[in-house]
């Protein structure tokens, strides 16, 4: 049986921007993201996973990475009141449906997923996300990344084919090329192909920085200049690696058995659906949760 570790916020934002505002809760806020996320979570539960958990992002501006680098994710605006309502409502729905949910003001959802991967590594969890950063979890026990919307599974070989580096090198790769979505700068003149070529020769950035004289002799265009820039930007690269490497040592105080979907109160979940203006899902909620609960309708 499968273990799903879900990058919840990625899908909440997807539905928030992709679906029309056709649903409104009793509080007066639009709830299209709540509809999309709840439908998505029901689809996952309907596949009968043995273990399942959702990680939510609540650390924008308060993450430990902001202490290391104040400009981390500085271009991202805090959710407005309407979006914040939907984010909270999605977590409320997931918890009511019996799904183990995790969030932190200090750690990002990606870090929580890393910790959950460590906890459930023997189960070879599937990471439900399209976030490239999570590719590094394929070197820590995860079986694959699954972009649910596109129905694309990526194992270690597929990640290496896409980025040119092994899963355990994803953080090093991002430290070299940067990550504009997180406002992490890269090394000028080092793009994806050059970074992949360097990491084909060296296992990680520390090995690379220790042997810049070898870099200068590589059959790369401008190799001598690349070697000089690596030395010039060495501290930036090391900082970027700390920002891009997922923290899996978080103490969550749970074991894998805590990730078993819990028996849900179907009538309460359906009442919540009415509260959030997504009553059209009540029949699906009833069917899906009855199956999870081992009940007959």
UniProtKB/TrEMBL annotation:
> Which biological processes are named by the entry's GO terms?
DNA replication, Okazaki fragment processing
MF terms from GO for this chain are: 5'-3' exonuclease activity; 5'-flap endonuclease activity; DNA binding
The UniProt entry's coiled-coil ranges are none
Q: What is this protein called?
A: 5'-3' exonuclease
Provenance organism: Microbulbifer thermotolerans
Keywords per UniProt: DNA-binding, Exonuclease, Hydrolase, Nuclease
Q: Would you say which domain of life the source belongs to?
A: Bacteria
The record lists the lineage as: Bacteria, Pseudomonadati, Pseudomonadota, Gammaproteobacteria, Cellvibrionales
In what residue span(s) does the 5'-3' exonuclease domain sit? 3-262
Q: What InterPro entries does UniProt report for this protein, alphabetically?
A: 5-3_exonucl_a-hlix_arch_N, 5-3_exonuclease, 5-3_exonuclease_C_sf, DNA_polI_H3TH, FEN, HhH2, PIN-like_dom_sf
């Amino acid at each position: 049986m499968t273990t799903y570790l879900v990058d919840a916020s990625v899908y909440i934002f997807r539905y928030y921007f992709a679906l029309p505002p056709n649903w409104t809760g009793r509080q007066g806020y639009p709830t299209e993201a709540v509809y999309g996320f709840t439908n998505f979570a029901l689809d996952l539960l309907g596949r009968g996973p043995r273990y399942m958990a959702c990680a939510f992002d609540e650390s924008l501006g308060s993450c430990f990475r902001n202490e290391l680098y104040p400009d981390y994710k500085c271009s991202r605006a805090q959710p407005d009141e309407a979006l914040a309502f939907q984010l909270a409502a999605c977590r409320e729905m997931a918890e009511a449906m019996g799904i183990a949910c995790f969030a932190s003001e200090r750690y990002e959802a990606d870090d929580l997923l890393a910790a959950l991967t460590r906890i459930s590594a023997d189960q070879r969890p599937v990471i439900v996300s399209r976030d490239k950063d999570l590719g590094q979890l394929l070197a820590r026990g995860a079986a694959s990344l699954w972009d649910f919307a596109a129905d694309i599974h990526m194992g270690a070989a597929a990640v290496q084919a896409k980025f040119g580096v092994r899963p355990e090198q994803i953080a090093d790769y991002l430290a070299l090329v940067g990550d504009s979505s997180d406002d992490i700068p890269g090394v000028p003149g080092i793009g994806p192909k050059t970074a992949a070529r360097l990491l084909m020769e060296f296992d990680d950035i520390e090995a690379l920085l220790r042997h810049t004289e070898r870099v200068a002799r590589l059959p790369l265009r401008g190799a001598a200049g690349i070697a000089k820039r690596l030395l010039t930007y060495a501290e930036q690269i090391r900082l970027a690696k700390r920002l891009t490497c997922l923290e899996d040592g978080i103490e969550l105080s749970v074991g894998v058995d805590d990730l078993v979907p819990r028996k849900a109160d179907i009538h309460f979940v359906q009442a919540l659906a009415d509260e959030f203006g997504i009553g059209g899902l009540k029949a699906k909620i009833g069917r899906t949760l009855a199956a999870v609960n081992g009940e007959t309708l």
